[in-house]
Design a protein that fits this description.
single chain, mainly alpha, 2 domains, four-stranded mixed sheet, 10 helices, 4 strands, 45% helix, globular, binds zinc ion
Length: 288
Amino acid sequence: MFRKFEIVSTPNAAARGRADMFWKKNNKFLKAFKKFRKPERKLPGVFENARILDQQGLLKYFSLAGFEYGSWIDNNTRFEFLYGCVVSLLDLRDLTGIKSLGFGLYTIAFGARGKGGRGSAAAHFEPRRHAINLTKEYGLEALAHEYGHLLDHFFGCYIDQDKLSQYLSLGKLNGKISLRVNGLRKGTLRYLMQEVIKAIVFDSKGNVTPYYTRLTKEAKSEYFTASTELFARAFEQWVTYQLKKKGVVNKFLSQPKYEHWMYLSPAHFKKVSPKINALIKAMAVKAK
Ligand SMILES: [Zn+2]
């Protein structure tokens, strides 16, 4: 039974495999990778001595619906992907306090969906199929961002529903416009999400922040001011910040994938961060 799910029996990167090349691309990353690779990163309990990753066991452990791989992804690369995923999911679990990260509904796909190729997104979230899709080329850095979309979707679609949108943040709706929704009950998840977006769009005096102004001026597409994207990028920053506080570097989980100006400045992030804390805390309570 167990052997059925064996991927490969070594925890080392496959030489010149896709993931191996990715990790070797720059020294900075290699340094970070060393930090999360055995034996530097000790995996808790069930995984501690695992030389074989049991996929079925992992799905159950994280309440995920599935792992998917593109057919051209070789076994060693699959293993590397899965290993990075496990370490990252453990980090996410730790940071968010949400144990059943996949809520029994969501799938993580690696190089399995989407067109790929130049100019395509490194990753994307598919609400209809309940899937995070990480591409073969750059998807290794985008899990935190996509998990932000997953949280936005799960809690908006199943826990705090509203006919306006399946996303708590109101999804593709422009961040500033999304704030015009009134009458949200204080303390609800939609209210707490709105507080996050508000802190991104407006300063304490009610003026539009330089960050948001910059996005509307410089970003070529409205995609970047969509409320779900504002949240996902801020969540990405939040994950990196929380990991840093713990002395952990995990670039598989989160690595800025957009240009610098697309992210909150450190001073602005400090204002947004407590709002994300409040939202995540409330989500963790609801997830229990
Ligand atoms: Zn996104």
